Amino acid sequence: MNNRILIVEDEARLASLLADYLRQANFAPHIVADGLETAPWVRENHPALILLDLMLPGKDGMDICKEIRSFSNVPIIMVTARIEEIDRLLGLELGADDYICKPFSPREVVARVKAVLRRSGGQTTLRTKGLLLEEASLQASWNGRKLDLTSVEFKLLQHLAAHPGRIFSREQLMDRIYADRRIVSDRTIDSHIKKLRKKIETASPGEDLIRSVYGVGYKFEMERE
């Protein structure tokens, strides 16, 4: 089991305190204090989760989050002293899984880490009632029947299923599944969703796991196990 947690924090005392609490909870923390070192470390070491401060030397946490999301779905919890609502929303839209503001209790941070890891399923295997997604092999099945998905369809279903009930706009979904930020039409997502729904319907007639929210986007309806 991957229990490695990356702490990206330039306040040495705070980083050390968080590391101590995470060790007590049987995690293996690693501290990075410079924003420029973060993405290369993630590429090399594949942590289970990242605690990412926003105000960092070298590179801002928002830019780091965006960079990491171009190559990894690792869960990210943003940690910051910024409390303005616009920063909260921007952080989540860039692909953060949760957001916690300073000052905070280290115990609360550990609780959030555990909660996000439970929701994410470690990002390697994601299970719902009937749905199984294996990221390493891009294999998907529904009620035991294989779904023959393209890589884009797999990423799209994985992202929606990892956040049941949360509505994503077409733009947010495009940012997540197209790492190269290519220019595509909003309707590209609609086309992928249509094909994805058809494949799920073929595997299990009558099932509608992905719901349209008129004028907003899409959401995954099923509860995680």
Protein traits:
single chain, 225 residues, alpha/beta, Rossmann fold, Arc Repressor Mutant, subunit A, 5-stranded parallel β-sheet, 4-stranded antiparallel β-sheet, 8 helices, elongated
What class do helices, strands and sheet pairing give?
Answer: alpha/beta
Distance between the termini: 19 Å
Identify the CATH architecture of the largest domain: 3-Layer(aba) Sandwich
User: Strand arrangement, largest sheet?
Assistant: 2-1-3-4-5
Radius of gyration: 18 Å
CATH topology descriptor of the largest domain:
Rossmann fold
Number of strands: 12
Largest sheet: 5 strands, parallel
Order of helices and strands: EHEHEHEHEHEEEEHEHHEE
At the fourth CATH level, what is the homologous superfamily of the largest domain? Response regulator
Structure description:
With 225 residues, this protein is of the alpha/beta class. The chain folds into 2 domains: 4-122, Rossmann fold (3-Layer(aba) Sandwich), CATH 3.40.50; 124-220, Arc Repressor Mutant, subunit A (Orthogonal Bundle). Helix content is 42%, strand content 21%. The chain is built from 8 helices and 12 strands. It has helices at residues 12-24, 35-45, 61-69, 85-93, 106-120, 151-161, 170-177, 186-203, and strands at 4-8, 28-32, 49-53, 76-80, 98-101, 125-127, 131-134, 139-142, 145-147, 168-169, 210-213, 217-220. The strands form 3 sheets. Strands 2-1-3-4-5 form a 5-stranded parallel sheet, with helices on both faces. Strand 7 and strand 8 form a beta hairpin. Helix 2 (35-45) runs parallel beside helix 3 (61-69). The longest helix has 18 residues, at 186-203. It is elongated, with a radius of gyration of 18 Å.
